[in-house]
């Protein structure tokens, strides 16, 4: 189990992720579970979490020049659904 202060890495703020009410997206630790994310959001933001969906993003490679290959590490995102009427302020994030 991961410490709750290390589970959430950063909020994901894009047009698509903020368009849905009561759903917020976070980049999370690769070993984090849905329960870890639920506890971390509940402790940090003092809100009631209804549901957490996890998305695994695969690693990617790309060519940068003739012989240089750059790799982007695999990562994980969590979409957190809050109780109706509650909201988060991403400015409070570390």
Walk me through this protein's architecture:
This protein is α+β, with helices and mostly antiparallel strands and 94 residues long. The protein has a single domain, classed as RRM (RNA recognition motif) domain (Alpha-Beta Plaits), CATH 3.30.70. Helices cover 21% and strands 37% of the residues. It has 3 helices and 6 strands; from the N terminus they run H-E-H-E-H-E-E-E-E. Strand 4 and strand 5 form a beta hairpin. It is elongated, with a radius of gyration of 15 Å.
Q: How many runs of DSSP E, i.e. beta strands?
A: 6
CATH superfamily: RRM (RNA recognition motif) domain
| Tertiary shape | elongated
CATH level 1 class label = Alpha Beta
Classify the fold: give the CATH topology. Answer: Alpha-Beta Plaits
The main β sheet shows up as:
4 strands, antiparallel
Order of helices and strands: HEHEHEEEE
Instruction: Provide the number of structural domains.
Output: 1
Total helix count?
3
| Mean pLDDT score | 90
- Computed CA radius of gyration, to the nearest angstrom: 15 Å
Parts with pLDDT < 50 across at least 5 consecutive residues: none
Separation, N- and C-terminal Cα atoms: 21 Å
CATH architecture: 2-Layer Sandwich
